[in-house]
Amino acid sequence: ESMKNIDDIILLFYPSNNAEHANHGGELYLKEIVIEVWGDLACFTMPYAKGERLTYPFPTPSAARGILSAIYSKPKEFRWQINRIEVLNPIRYISFKRNEVKYTVAKEPIFTEDERTQRQTTALQDVRYRIAASLIPRPAFAGCEKQLLCKSGLC
Fold first, then answer.
1. DSSP-based three-state secondary structure for 135
2. What pTM did the predictor assign?
3. Sequence-distant (≥ 6) Cβ neighbours of residue 63 within 8 angstroms
4. Which of 26, 71, 77, 146 is 20 to 30 Å from 153 by CA-CA measure?
């Protein structure tokens, strides 16, 4: 189940169909890439839950783009378009408290004994998701599909 590098991921999940497609806005995109991500804990924080962390039950599209960009990114050449996010494991919440420092570090040192607080987190436990996405070339990109998939750009 473990992947050694980005070439393994592309070889395993990149379909062999060579056709380009257009989405509803007429924007060209390349074949769909599908990956599975999993972990013991996950927290996709809701923006209104600032102090106490409360999670969405699945990754948001921006979180999914972040996961894919952490694996493979050429920001000047393409962007990720999330097509779907599938929940593979049952959604299970876990709550716990964690210690935090109330303030961010400034020029002066912070004495954590004086500035410590406990915050509640509601996270997800034993998660597994399937993320399907397409590479959408940037308007200025003049290369070919193979160049987008090549790590060095010299393929």
1. strand
2. 0.69
3. 44
4. 26
Backbone angles phi, psi at 152, to 5 degrees: -90, -20
Query: What gap in Å lies between CA 17 and CA 1, rounded to an integer?
Result: 24
Helix boundaries (H) for the chain: 6-13, 61-71, 112-115, 145-149
Tens-digit pLDDT profile for residues 19-51: 455 554 555 556 788 999 999 999 998 888 777
Its sign, for the CA torsion 66, 137, 82, 18, is negative
Position 152 pLDDT exceeds 70: no
Six-digit token pair at 132? 């399907």
pLDDT, tens only, 68-94? 999 888 888 888 999 999 999 999 999
Question: Which tokens in the block code for residue 81?
Answer: 């378009």
Rg of the chain over all Cα atoms, to the nearest angstrom: 20
Instruction: Count the alpha carbons within 13 Å of 109 in the hemisphere toward its beta carbon.
Output: 3
The torsion angles phi and psi of 10, rounded to 5 degrees, stand at -65, -45
